[in-house]
Structures are given as structure tokens and as C-alpha cells.
Design a protein that fits this description.
The chain is of the alpha/beta class. The chain has helices at 20-30, 51-79, 94-100, 139-147, 169-172, 187-199, and strands spanning 8-12, 34-38, 83-87, 105-110, 131-134, 152-154, 177-182, 205-208, 236-240, 246-248, 252-254. The protein is globular and about 55 Å long.
């Protein structure tokens, strides 16, 4: 049977399996949208934190950024999308956004706390978006007061069932736990998890994410796992995750499947 294509959607952001951006692209495909995905991580290589790697990235960052923006423009010209979804907006120039929004509805999905906490995201670009979706309930007031942005909506996190699913017990015995947290470290997150572990010391807590080497709470040390081990996981009783819901152009809100 022929597929009734609703919209053509250009998604811009990380393309690795498990990323919020990839989940959004899959969500639009599930809504019978034709999707083209430009992966930021296809232009900026993943390297170690060694001095040599940092020097290499610094030397070639401008070249990577130029190629990334050039590919976005070419993709928009060839694909001619109805909707362009930008995940955060890392390394995207104002001129690039100004060009691609001429014939498309340009939206931004921003799951982080602040619009100004990424050096690779230019805060001036947010004024170009037709709408911004934030996973933070305080975003509407915060973005208006600090950046004068009014077209902002709160969109709660969801879950990608292709990534976050139950495994057979024989494959997941060592991953079974009471509470899992997946997300980058921050002092506020550490404080919350510290309170949880202090009040419930017997709880089996596991933490995955970047930056947790900065943790100062001794009670959490045994709970922190290597981020690389996330390639396979988990059977759980409760999971605190940072993931996605999908929003379509006609204000069609489709909640992600809850496990």
C-alpha cells in the first residue's frame, strides 16, 4: 500500500543511537513523515580528552563547522522540507538558519536548563526560530525575561521504545537495579541523588552520564558507572531519564510509549 506522507522533515542534530535527536527523527517517521537527518556528529569527530585530541579539534573546528553548515544548506535546498527541527543548535550559524527558514517552519527542541550554557550555541540564533520547545517548565518565563522570546512551549520528556526496552533476564542480571539516572552531572542533580541515597541507603542506585567524575558525594561513588557501559542496559523498577516527545506542525502531540 502507498504511504501517505504527511510532511517532509529535516532533522539537525546528533545521529547516534539513543540520542534525543535520533528519537525525534524516528518519531516523525512513525507519523508517516519523510525524514532527512543531518548528524552533527558526522562532522565533529568523537575524540578522547587527551591534549593531542583537544589541539586537533581546536585546529580543525572552523573547518568542521563550515562543512556542517554547508551540508545543512545543501540538504534544505535538495530536500525542501516543510519542517526543520533543530536539536539545540550546536555549531549552526545565524546565516544558515536565516537561509533555511525561508520556505520551512523552523523549530528548536532544547532539553537543557539554559539557552546560554553551550559555547557552541549562539544565543542570538534563538530569535530566528518560529517556535522553541523546552523540557523545562520554567523555560517560558525564563526565556522571555532573559532573551525576549515569546514563542516557547513546555514539552515534557518522553521515551524511545526502540532504545529503552526490557531485555531478557539472562542478558540483564547485572543491570537490574531500583533506580537509574542517565544524564550529565550538575551540582543540583548530585544534590538530589545524594538526598535520595542518604534517605534510602539500601537502595540500588546506578548513575550514567558525562561529568560525574566531579561528584563530591561519597555515598554516590559506588553508584556511578562508566558511560560506555550504556551500550547495553537494563531491566528496572524505576528510571529517571531525559528523553523525548514528538510535536508535529499541526499541533499534534504524540506521547512516547511508556515502558
Amino acid at each position: 500500500m502507498p504511504i501517505n506522507i504527511k510532511y517532509k522533515v529535516l532533522v539537525i542534530g546528533d545521529s547516534w543511537n539513543g540520542s534525543d535527536c535520533t528519537g525525534l527523527a524516528r518519531g516523525f517517521r512513525d507519523l508517516n513523515c519523510l525524514v532527512d537527518h543531518v548528524g552533527e556528529d558526522q562532522f565533529f569527530p568523537k575524540t578522547s580528552s587527551s591534549v593531542t585530541s583537544k589541539i586537533f579539534l581546536r585546529l580543525f573546528k572552523s573547518f568542521f563547522k563550515y562543512q556542517f553548515n554547508l551540508h545543512i544548506i545543501k540538504s534544505a535546498q535538495i530536500f525542501q522540507p516543510d519542517i526543520i527541527l533543530v536539536f539545540k543548535g550546536n555549531h549552526i550559524n545565524i546565516k544558515t538558519l536565516d537561509f533555511i527558514k525561508q520556505k520551512s517552519w523552523l523549530i528548536n527542541f532544547y532539553p537543557d536548563i539554559s539557552l546560554t550554557n553551550h559555547s557552541s550555541v549562539d544565543p542570538d540564533t534563538f530569535a530566528l526560530y518560529d517556535h522553541i520547545f523546552s523540557t523545562k517548565s520554567f523555560a517560558l518565563k525564563d526565556y522571555k525575561n532573559n532573551l525576549g522570546l515569546n514563542k516557547v512551549s513546555f514539552l515534557p520528556h518522553g521515551c524511545d521504545p526502540r532504545v529503552h526496552r526490557h531485555l531478557k533476564e539472562d542478558l540483564s542480571k547485572e543491570w537490574i537495579n531500583d533506580v537509574s539516572f542517565i544524564g550529565a552531572w550538575s551540582s543540583n542533580k548530585e544534590s538530589i541523588l545524594n538526598s535520595l541515597k542518604t534517605k534510602l541507603p539500601e537502595i540500588n542506585l546506578k548513575i550514567w552520564g558525562n561529568g560525574w567524575e566531579s561528584n563530591q558525594s561519597k555515598c554516590l561513588n559506588s553508584s556511578i558507572w562508566d558511560i560506555q557501559s550504556l551500550e547495553i542496559y537494563t531491566q528496572w523498577q524505576l528510571m529517571l531519564v531525559q528523553l523525548i516527545w514528538v510535536y508535529c506542525r499541526k499541533k499534534l502531540l504524540v506521547p512516547a510509549q511508556v515502558i
